[in-house]
Amino acid sequence: MPRKSVYKAEIEHIQVMDENGVIDAAQSRNTLSDEEILELFKFMQQCRQLDEIAFKLQRSGRMGTYPQNKGQEAAAIGTAYAAKKGQDFLVPCYRENAALFMHGLPMHYVLLHWMGDERGNQIPEGVQQLPLCIPIGTQMLHATGIAWAFKMRKEPKVALTYFGDGATSEGDFHEAMNFASVFQVPLVFICQNNQWAISVPRESQMRSKTVAQKALAYDMPTYQVDGNDLLAVYKIAKECVDRARGGGGPSFIEAVTYRLADHTTADDARRYRDPKEVDMWLGRDPLIRLRKYLETKDLWDETKQKTHEEKCKAIVSEVVKTAEGIEKPSFDDIFDYTFAAINPELERQKRTARTSSLGQDPTQVGLTAAAEMANGK
Amino acid sequence: MPRTDVMKQKGLTLVDAINEALEQEMTRDERVVILGEDVGANGGVFRVTEGLQKIFGKDRVIDTPLAESGIMGTAIGLAMAGMRPIPEIQFDGFLGPAYDQLTNHAARYRTRTRGAITIPLTVRVPVGGGIHAPELHSDSPEAIYAHTPGLKVVMPCTPVDAKGLLTAAIRDPDPVVFFEPKRVYRSFREEVPEEEYTIPIGHAKVVSEGTDLTVVTWGASVFECLAAIDKLPEDVSIELIDLRTIYPIDLDTIVQSVQKTGRCVIVHEAPKTSGFGAEISSLIQEHCFLYLKAPVQRVAGFDTVMPYYKLELDYLPDAKRIAESVTQTLAY
Ligand SMILES: Cc1ncc(C[n+]2csc(CCOP(=O)(O)OP(=O)(O)O)c2C)c(N)n1
Ligand SMILES: [Mg+2]
Hints:
- The structure holds two protein chains of two kinds.
- By secondary structure, chain A is an alpha/beta fold.
- Chain A contains 15 helices and eight strands.
- Chain A has helices at residues 34-59, 73-82, 97-102, 108-114, 139-152, 171-182, 202-205, 230-245, 275-282, 286-296, 302-325, 333-336, 344-352, 357-360, 369-374; strands at residues 12-14, 89-91, 159-164, 187-193, 196-197, 200-201, 222-226, 251-256.
- Chain A has a six-stranded parallel β-sheet with strand order 1-7-8-4-3-2, with helices on both faces. In chain A, strands 5-6 form a two-stranded antiparallel sheet.
- In chain A, α2 packs parallel to α8 (230-245), α4 (108-114) packs across α11 and α5 packs parallel to α6 (171-182).
- The termini of chain A are far apart.
- The model of chain A has no long low-confidence stretch (mean pLDDT 96).
- Chain B is an alpha/beta fold.
- Helix content of chain B is 35%, strand content 17%.
- Chain B contains twelve helices and twelve strands.
- In chain B, the strands form three sheets. A five-stranded mixed β-sheet of chain B has the order 7-9-8-11-12, with helices on both faces.
- Chain B starts with 13 loop residues before the first helix and ends with a helix.
- The relative contact order of chain B is 0.13.
- At the A-B interface, α12, α13, α14 and α15 of A face α3, β12, α11 and α12 of B.
- The structure holds thiamine diphosphate and magnesium ion.
- Thiamine diphosphate (TPP) sits between chains A (95, 134-136, 164-167, 192, 194, 196-198, 259, 263) and B (37, 66, 68, 90, 94, 97).
């Protein structure tokens, strides 16, 4: 029997705006208007400002560990802008703050989370997203379930889920991809391939030449985009979101980007990463090319930049004030959210702040001396 | 906790001691390999494997893909095929994906093959709270694994014990879960014998002898208990036992002590209900019934999700809570 090919595939790489802010005219159809680009550029700067301040808060001991988003904002903003705020649903990991803000999460929530406060996860009513997800690669299954529910109820909604290159090694990632594909749920998988998973470079994480090709195994439309190119990200994300909304099932986007900062503030990337590589990517920062583009269009200049920077600083300093102004949660909070209704043992622990029976009940039979002590006699 | 002049102290920290044990065992036995996330060039996120890849190469100190089930499952395969793998799971909270492999395979293979196939692996896991870490970086799941037949569970808290117990774990013919209390990774130094040595698994340590009451604990809580004992009046005589091995439990040391003192307070970070303190309390009731002068008490984490760090110190048993419970138990 002659061998025959039963499957052929290729992965497209899409770039609309290059590092110098030059747009490919053919590619730029169905992307963003100049007004939109300007607004998103301004928003991106605000997110960057928050990210830099978050870093400083950690360094000055005012916040715990923080993973910087710096350099990856185009991937977050381009995808989130393609989705409908208040209708579509975002399922993040922790490196797409800008997407969450765009869909209505107040900025101080993210600070609160990293300040060790669960109220940073208490998503306000009407904001369609889950909180940050700490266990790597687990949240895409939730996104699949959420999108599945939309499909079951015939709601015209789409879910978008974000994760890193490292996350695609987890078993849960593949299970999510398979479920999403088998049940054809309205979901867009967005891999922020920032080249590193803490100290492990992408080439050691996987032998696959692209992350995008992993979706071929699940027969999903899949794309590799320049993740630092807002227009390319938006263009492809819009296609995927529209297809999903129209009943066309899940898609996969690999946004090729770069982690410009350390993995988190607890990490020191100099131990494992060549600074030359970082330098190279600094030039590919999404903000640089957008600014160049807007300047050639006479929509931006140094004066506008200065004014806007001041505005961002003012906004962010309010955000910090809000986050830091929130008092330590009450001790009762530890208990009150364990279940819908508290049970007797939890109630005892809450009331007495003790787990020992004598601590919980100083009148326990046989306990005279201790009861007196507890009563301060 | 003896935190202040760590730099001035002589000897090794817990991290150093574990690193030294790993290096010596890898030198002694070519079958020993380390595998995990960021254990190579980065030396692990806590630097426990610092420098080992330089010495032993990338084939023996292996940066794996980001997949705990993969790490544990392939470590099992390596062990089956005659290697001595030491998988590292980066944090307690990320044992989740490895759970199936660890409990349904590593723990059961000797039994289900009637000894034909065995799994000599040592999984290292930083454990416990108190370091202001993000979510799922502060949990204490030791009871879950102690409740899994076929696993040994170890949690030393001093450099000397860690080196000896890790060496014993690596040489052990069965799977060992080696928990490292991260809160005391670098909190003090201690003189540690340079040469290799083992401390047998399954032996508790009497940290200080006493006659009035026994405190049983393990992990970073040992130091909270020491601080609590410091707070008590001079004439109170407390026997402090550091369990060191959770399973198999050293029943004799506990029973001997409680038969002597008649009173016992058990301290652990994990939630109280079904925590390992429950097992110890039961054993004491079974073996020391007529010796008891007071009900056995448990000072533990609450039966809640480990809170984020703003509230973590309200959650963790501290010296004050421990001292109060000891006082009440003494007064009973
Ligand atoms: C299940 C699990 N294992 C390990 C970790 C520790 N950890 C946190 S982030 C990270 C790397 C993630 O890399 P990637 O998915 O590429 O995302 P990035 O941080 O680069 O955005 C690791 C190993 C974790 N949080 N969860
Ligand atoms: Mg990454």
